[in-house]
Amino acid sequence: MTARPHADRVPPVADILAGDRRALATAITLIESTREDDREPAEDLLQALLPHAGKAVRLGISGAPGVGKSTFIEAFGMRAIAAGRRLAVLAIDPSSERSGGSILGDKTRMPELARSGQSFIRASPASGTLGGVARRTRDVMLACEAAGFDLVMVETVGVGQSEAAVADMTDLYMLLVQPGAGDELQGIKRGVMERADIVVVTKADGALEGPAAHAKADFEAALSLHADEGPWPPCVIACSSLEGTGLDEIADAVERHRTAMAKDGALEAKRAAQASAWLWREVEDSLVAALHADERIAPAVEALEAEVTAQTLTPGAAARRIVQRLLERDA
Ligand SMILES: Nc1nc2c(ncn2[C@@H]2O[C@H](COP(=O)(O)OP(=O)(O)OP(=O)(O)O)[C@@H](O)[C@H]2O)c(=O)[nH]1
Ligand SMILES: [Mg+2]
To answer: From the alpha carbon of 74, which atom of ligand 1 is closest?
Structure first.
């Protein structure tokens, strides 16, 4: 089959900029397409949208399964919409088995948001990408911003590297934790805690109100251990998405974070560093994908990997030879 042009699937830039939801959805499908012949039109489209992106508040949300992410996003998001925001929710689902049901699942967990004309919900399966990370979520975020969404919440379940990716593409990273399991800090990896700008203790209501206060104190103590002198000292806030308590405090913290990051160009510097880090992430991903896709190199790569697993060759030496093969490929 010959590759056919996909011009029919490239939505007009003007429609996206005008906030046409169908145009945006079509754009996202193109951006997320893994077809080789979709890459160039997708990149051209993003290039056209880029000057119109960047004005949104970018929030990253992660937490263990069942911690209350969807309920929080619904409650927090509806308040933001009531305050005049347009909200895009982008969910990265790192487990491919779950991805089939996740979109529907999240829409039923966020019924009000799903119905609101001021919100846009999109789930991306992260299957087939490195480190369980949806490679295109950052691009999707830019498209949503160009379409006029001025608050973006990027959500991921707290497993694997997707948390780091979410922290790497947002202005403010929120880690959701729940009361009860707080004593051992819920096995949260140190690196993840250190990235959190706000730790949100969820479900602070009813019988869990006391345990939530305990968890808050535990996390405050843990955070103070590695609080550095950045523009924003991380904080811990308890909330109940069901009762609506603590949500104003979180919204206020988001505002204060914004103000703190506006000083001395801290936000611009953070975004610049993120874009640069993303570039290298993409370069690594592309190189590895090229290696795996190339039938002329694949057998040699496999053979080298076998030597490494048999411990007869060091990973360093094997990596150097693999890179050499790739560089010499088209020579
Ligand atoms: N008591 C109480 N329960 C809550 C609150 N928020 C969420 N829950 C409950 O916790 C359970 C999980 O909530 P979700 O919002 O689906 O959690 P999640 O983190 O999105 O879960 P996954 O998407 O499966 O990772 C549900 O039964 C919610 O009703 C809250 O503020 N208070
Ligand atoms: Mg959820």
So the answer is: 15
Spatial separation of the C-alpha atoms in residues 269 and 24, rounded to whole Å: 28
Q: What is residue 195's predicted lDDT score, i.e. its pLDDT?
A: 87
Closest ligand to C-alpha of residue 65 is 1
Q: Using one digit for the tens of pLDDT, what is the confidence trace for 228-274?
A: 668 899 999 999 999 999 999 999 999 999 999 999 999 999 999 99
Q: Which domains does the chain have, with CATH numbers?
A: 1-52 (1.20.5.170), 54-263 (3.40.50.300), 276-328 (1.10.287)
Structure tokens at 218: 């535990």
Q: Which of 61, 71, 175 to mutate for ligand 1's pocket (most ligand atoms within 8 Å of CB)?
A: 71
Cα separation of 71 and 15, whole Å?
A: 31
Q: Counting atoms of ligand 1 from 1, which one is nearest the CA of 202?
A: 31
Distance 106 CA to ligand 2 centre (A): 6
Residue nearest to atom 13 of ligand 1 (CA): 68
Other Cβ atoms closer than 10 A to 272 = 11
Residue 261 has a CB neighbour count (10 Å cut-off) of 21
Report the predicted TM-score, pTM, of the whole model to 2 decimal places.
0.88
Q: Could you give the CA distance from residue 147 to residue 15 in angstroms, rounded to a whole number?
A: 8
Between the CA of 176 and the centroid of ligand 1 the distance, in Å, is 11
Q: How remote is the CA of residue 75 from the centroid of ligand 1, in Å?
A: 11
